[in-house]
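Ticket #4471: structure output looks truncated?

Reporter: J.K.
Steps to reproduce: submitted the chain below (182 residues) through the standard prediction queue, then opened the result file.
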Amino acid sequence: MVAGTDGHDFQHRERVAGQYSVSATNKARMKSLVVVHLLLGVVHLVRLLPSILTLLGISAPLPLPTLPTPYPIEYAWLASLPFALLALNACKRSKSGPLQVFQLVLLVACISTSLITLFILSPDTIEFLLTGSSKDQATVGDYPYPALWSAFLLLCVVVHAAEVVVTRTLVQAWAPRHGKRL
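Returned output as attached by the reporter:
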């Protein structure tokens, strides 16, 4: 305790403005979420790598299990990876413009494509969940691919929704304040 005070004068001390503490907390959250986003991107790349190599005309044996051909919409998710790096840079510099772009990319390239792919895989996934049968379904190990990929996509949707919430919070914290008192 400071000499000359009994500790009850805390109302007169300087305090950090609310938006700065909100900014600091959510910057840390955003960095963590973007790292998870990039790790999810690695899984997406591993999933799409065989078909990307085929599209490029490269024939290389990969030590990956044989997976079904990806749907064309699944490639759109990869567009979010450069924007994730842009979001990290925007957080460091407290720039709301790039974060708003990142938010739009999350909605268009990540959340919507994941939900569409979940919808496409839902009949096989529901069949497996209700009957326990994975007859006529591609498998990874002993598990049906549609159920595994659906679980992964649900995780992606949760992470991206959290990114959108944190992005919106940061943009609001960094917005200029109107009606400031002098």
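Triage note (M.O.): checked the attachment and the full token line is present. The chain has four helices and two strands.
Status: closed, working as intended.
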